[in-house]
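Handout, section B. The chain below has 251 residues.
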Amino acid sequence: MDYFLANEAQRKLRRWWAPLAIVNVALLVLQTVMGQYATIAVTAWFWLLLAIVPASVLLFWGRPRKKRASNRLVEKGRVRSLLGLIVVYLLLVLTTNVLSQAAVNASDLGLRGYLWRSFLWLLPLNAFTILHIWTPFFAPEKKVQANAKIIQKYAEELATKVNEAVHPIRKQCLHLLAQNETVAAFDVLNRHYQLTKPVSEQSINNLIVLRSQYTGLQESIQLNTIDLNKAQLQLNRITLALLEMSKDITA
């Protein structure tokens, strides 16, 4: 089974959610300016905000804490399902708005009544969408812990997508992580940061902290002072953090 890093999966979802949400907002702005919702502008905007803001908050601002997100993977099949759900939901919101005047003309409902009634079909799908965004990224009981084999497979998959002629160092780093050569991967990243200018101080500090944690874990394992399962989870988190950092390698 193939996976995305949680942060990467969220970025993919945002790239679909943002443009469709913007289209919905732009349409309502146009309708408001042209006077379609002149007498119920507050209701119309409340309707749209209730339809798109909760999921937007989860996707753009409700990010998992870094320590949790760095050790979390999301199945690619789940991400594809979420993408489909997002598209269907936002198109339904858009269609509901586009057809508002026609629906009012065909019934005895006013625009306000139509918007309130539309929640009968929008809110269930809205709740369903929010639940399916929350579950893989935020819900502790559904957290997917990456194991070493999954991480190595994922690193190898990323390495195959890198053009060696353009990014030989990034490809080398990913191959090392795929082969569980973590110390060598640290060395590659360290050399890259030393030779590349400018490099953010935060990136250098992150690498130093991760290496210190890795060294400490290895010493604890050798001294048998830490539970091996707990140690492996922390090693997995470090490796996934290095995978994220490898994306910053420009060479």
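Note. Confidence is low (pLDDT under 50) at residues 65-70. Compare this with the example in section A.
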